[in-house]
Amino acid sequence: MKKIFSLALLALSLNAAELKMATTTSTDNTGLLDALKPLYEKQSGNTLKWVAVGTGAALKLGEDCNADVLFVHSPKAEKEFMQKGFGVERTAVMYNDFIVIAPKDLASKFKGKNLKESLELIKAEKITFISRGDKSGTDNKEKALWKKSIGEVPEKESWYQQSGQGMLASIKIAEEKNGVILTDRGTYIKYKDNEKNNPKLVIVNEGDDDLKNFYSVIAVNPKHCPQVDYKNASEFIQWLVSDETLKFIADFKLLNQALFIVDAKTRKE
């Protein structure tokens, strides 16, 4: 029995691959990928490695054939990527939502205001606002919200400052500058956990329909990039949206709060 088991392990190791994924800072910062990695590697025999950047940069890695699979959250940019023939098998996985957070001493200014009114207040009172400024999914969403609310992105205003950093780092910059920022809820929960559940920035806007944050997974198109590991990328996608893995994602919590809601079986776009 031991010999058979050893031979099975040897066969598995000989067929093992290194799957390269480009993903977003929010999936990385929350700890979800660190939790999924050992499960995938145990079941597949492969090694999963990823680089966490903004969605724009992740899609560019796919376009440039430097990743096998993408795990991202900017639907408009993803659809453009697919239309250009860079990706295949775009598959819904999960969502959380975006929230606006602000220093505790500013929170009362936002009380009773909806998202549009809050952004108008920031502009009127020139409250420091920290933008990712990195073409990430969060950055794309934030700029779309400004355009919808006030007709433009206030990029030339001195109070509108761009961090060029990932989500957790940008939250810390907002904290240091006593500023307001848009973040995904999952990363905010991670930030709260890091701050021993006593964060300096608190939620001032949530629940608006425009604040949903959808994540999808995409295999890089082997017709565009013949050298990519399409076989394992496709199998990874099927593993990610299997009932077992989706349950794991749904049950993944910090501070006893779920970070993501799975919608792989129900989302319609």
TrEMBL record:
Signal peptide: 1-22
Entries under PANTHER family matching the protein: EXTRACELLULAR TUNGSTATE BINDING PROTEIN
The keyword Signal appears for this protein: yes
NCBIfam families tied to this protein: tung_bind_TupA (NF041772)
Domain of life: Bacteria
Domain (PBP) ranges: 20-244
InterPro entries (alphabetical): ABC-Tungstate_binding, PBP_domain, TupA
Protein name: Tungsten ABC transporter TupABC, periplasmic tungstate-binding protein
GO molecular function: ABC-type tungstate transporter activity
SUPFAM superfamilies in the record: Periplasmic binding protein-like II (SSF53850)
Keywords, sorted A to Z: Signal
Pfam families per UniProt: PBP_like_2 (PF12849)
